[in-house]
Amino acid sequence: MNAAIDAREPPIQRAVALAGATGLVGRSILDGLLADAAVRSVHVLARRDPGLLHPRLTCHIVNFAALPPLPHVDELYLALGTTIKIAGTQAAFRAVDFDANLAVARAAVAAGARRCGLVSAMGANPESKVFYSRVKGELEKALEQLSLEGLVIARPSMLSGDREALGQPRRPLEKGFVVLSKALGPLIPANYRSIQAAQVARALLARTPLATGRVVLLSGEMQGR
Questions:
Q1: What pTM was estimated for this model as a whole?
Q2: How far is the C-alpha of 109 from the C-alpha of 113, rounded, in Å?
Q3: SS (H, E, C) 94-120
Q4: What's the CA gap between 113 and 106, in Å, rounded?
Q5: Which pairing describes strands 39-46 and 14-19: parallel, antiparallel, or unpaired?
Q6: I need a surface site. Which of 90, 107, 133, 161 has the fewest CB within 10 A?
Q7: Are 156 and 216 in contact (CB under 8 A)?
Q8: Would you kindly state where each structural domain of the chain is located, as residue ranges?
Q9: Which one, of 151, 136, 39, lies nearest residue 84 by Cα?
């Protein structure tokens, strides 16, 4: 798919599906969707309730390995992700970052979704020798094969945000990288500086509703949003 910029207004009264709403970027995406008057309904797919009540929000507690048919949706956001340390094994990691995300995407496309925003990672490449980067790249490639009018891929560097407030374990590497980014500032190229999860969410929310083709957003482009 080839990227294009569309100057039209986004369609009003969209129905949106979101997987990964309890995560760092996913929660910011959810907040942004609920604040958008053009979104009539948000369907969150999760293994546990995100703990948020809103008249336009419906939470579906699901088994990602056996998803039920979804209600009609126009748009999809994928923010499911873990780490190999948390998952325990490479197979368990792949089950979340590849299998679950792809299963949701296929179900959403079957339910009418024509655009998708994906939280991927810097260095994602299906040919990478690094397992983490290879899985991320394989997911991007698999999504490109679906019947989507637009696919927006965010490839952030190290994320910053309050994981503990969301009930998630701290990630020391993330914290260390944030400190390093602040200390070295402009000496670090923009695409490699740590980035706030909310900035990634805002970038996806801004580009996905009207995306045409494949669009890749790197950290430098998402900074400052």
A1: 0.84
A2: 5
A3: HHHHHHHHHHHHHHHHHCCCCEEEEEC
A4: 9
A5: parallel
A6: 90
A7: no
A8: 14-222
A9: 136
Cα→Cα distances 200→35, 89, 216, Å: 16, 27, 12
Question: What is the spatial distance between Cα 181 and Cα 194, in angstroms, rounded to a whole number?
Answer: 6
Rounded to whole angstroms, how far apart are CA atoms 117 and 62?
20
Q: Is residue 155 a contact partner of residue 124, using CB atoms and an 8 Å limit?
A: yes
CATH 3.20.20.210 is held by the domain 14-222? no
What is the C-alpha separation between 31 and 102, in angstroms, rounded?
Answer: 23
Q: Crossing angle, helix 197-207 and helix 24-34, to 10 degrees?
A: 50
Neighbours of 150 (CB within 10 A): 22
Q: Quote the strand ranges of the chain, DSSP E.
A: 14-19, 39-46, 57-61, 75-78, 115-119, 150-155, 159-160, 195-196, 213-218
Give the bridge partners for 159, in sequence order.
195
Please give the Cα distance from 197 to 79 (Å, whole number). Answer: 11
State residue 202 phi and psi, 5-degree precision.
-65, -40
pLDDT digits (tens, 9 = 90+) for 103-140: 999 999 999 999 999 999 999 999 999 999 999 999 99
Per-residue pLDDT tens digits for 64-87? 999 999 999 999 999 999 888 889
